[in-house]
Amino acid sequence: QHVVLYPLVSKSLRNIAAGKDPLEGQRHCCSIAQLHEHYSLGYPDLDELQKNPQPLIFDIEVLKVEAPGSYQQDPWAMTDEEKLQAVPLIHKEGNELYRQGKVQEASAKYYDAIACLKNLQMKEQPGSPDWIELDQKITPLLLNYCQCKLQCEEYYEVLDHCSSILNKYEDNVKAYFKRGKAHAAVWNVAEAQADFAKVLALDPSLRPVVSKELRSLEARLREKDAEDKIRFKGIFSQ
């Protein structure tokens, strides 16, 4: 088939394969501007095809056959209504994967659910009732995502996300607790202690859990001090 716009389609497909937004780099404009905008698509073979369009033969390979009703669309391909309906299902799948110990897979599910809601939220006026309602649905998913990242030892991502939650919801105990654990992991001792103190102020019933985290932090600090003394003793004795 003689398909003039195939290079743009191919670029989108390659973006999808790389886990990127399929519309990356594209924007609405007139035909002349579109040609100028896409003078280079980032792939030499597609650039050549765009300059010299020609009939193409497409070979389609069947990778797998799925049972009816088992196919799940990627979030980018869903309508707004489909995104909203998919979120509880994706959330449930993420929880099940987490219970099975598949933390990386669970975090990917939570990320997809967050992406669906963020996409919908971008279409609302910040601070409006609909925007706030979507944000309140995003928050527990983001906390689940942070729990996965804690286990994957990606602490700075946890710090960023929990801080963004606390900038909006100052009484979110789970965000303080997870941020406190992340601070402790990267040796931000004062910040960790402050977050754990906030947890106790908001929910005193969590004292046993917080005490355990503080004891663990103190033990790690003692070990670090002992290691530092040995290290520096060797330096000054030379």
From TrEMBL:
Pfam families linked: PPIase_AIP (PF23322)
Q: Name one GO molecular function term.
A: peptidyl-prolyl cis-trans isomerase activity
TPR repeat windows:
173-206
Mark the transmembrane ranges. Answer: none
What superkingdom does the record give?
A: Eukaryota
Q: InterPro entries, alphabetically?
A: AIP/AIPL1/TTC9, PPIase_AIP, PPIase_dom_sf, TPR-like_helical_dom_sf, TPR_rpt
Asked whether the keyword tRNA processing is assigned, the reply is no
Which residue range or ranges hold the AIP/AIPL N-terminal FKBP-type PPIase domain? 5-62
Q: Which UniProt keywords apply?
A: Cytoplasm, Phosphoprotein, Repeat, TPR repeat
Give the location in the cell: Cytoplasm
List, alphabetically, the SUPFAM superfamilies matched. Answer: TPR-like (SSF48452)
> One GO CC term of this entry?
cytoplasm
Give the multimer and partner information: Interacts with RET in the pituitary gland; this interaction prevents the formation of the AIP-survivin complex.
The task this protein performs is described as: May play a positive role in AHR-mediated (aromatic hydrocarbon receptor) signaling, possibly by influencing its receptivity for ligand and/or its nuclear targeting.
Entry protein name: AH receptor-interacting protein
Q: What organism does the record attribute this protein to? A: Corythaeola cristata
Report the gene name.
Answer: Aip
